[in-house]
Amino acid sequence: MKRIGVTGHRDIPGELHAHVRGAIRAAFRGHDAGALEALSSLAVGADQLFADIALACGAGLVAVIPSGDYEEGFADPAELARYRCLRKRATREVRMAFPHSTDEAYYAAGAYIADHCDRLLAVWDGRPARGLGGTGDIVHYARELGKPVTVIWRAGVERA
Fold first, then answer.
1. How many CB atoms lie within 10 A of CB 140?
2. pTM of the predicted protein model
3. Residue 137 resides in a domain
4. What is the pLDDT of residues 95-147, one digit of tens each?
5. Does a structural domain hold residue 55?
6. Containing domain of residue 26, as a range?
7. Residue 53, C-beta contacts closer than 8 angstroms, at least 6 positions apart
8. How far is residue 20's CA from residue 134's CA, in Å, rounded to a whole number?
9. How does strand 2-8 pair with strand 119-123?
């Protein structure tokens, strides 16, 4: 079974949405849907967009949950509802052994995704992570493992 993982920013500039969607869809094209798994932590932004597209393409979704209190990090009720909906649609769930959402928990979830995917998609502006476990850290980790990493971004676009 082929596995595609994701890491990415929570805030994707509006001007990049179509570009990011297209690049994620392209990553799923040409694969037998039933023989494909998508690994995501289902965070707001890139993770949820990836999960939506993976499910639409027929891939099995693996929800990688960083901590026991992960849901508490979703301040907006609509974002929490979307997370819960995606989580219910997951074919499998992996929960990290952290009771609380910490940078270490986020790093562990990202590392798990990198460890268990054949290819990592990174919706990433190329800048260093803003905290341990951020997108830049996971890209660096995956590259050290020798995993193929596809960066999805457009030069000149700044993140808030």
1. 13
2. 0.95
3. yes
4. 999 999 999 999 999 999 999 999 999 999 999 888 888 999 999 999 999 99
5. yes
6. 2-152
7. 21, 24, 25, 28
8. 18
9. parallel
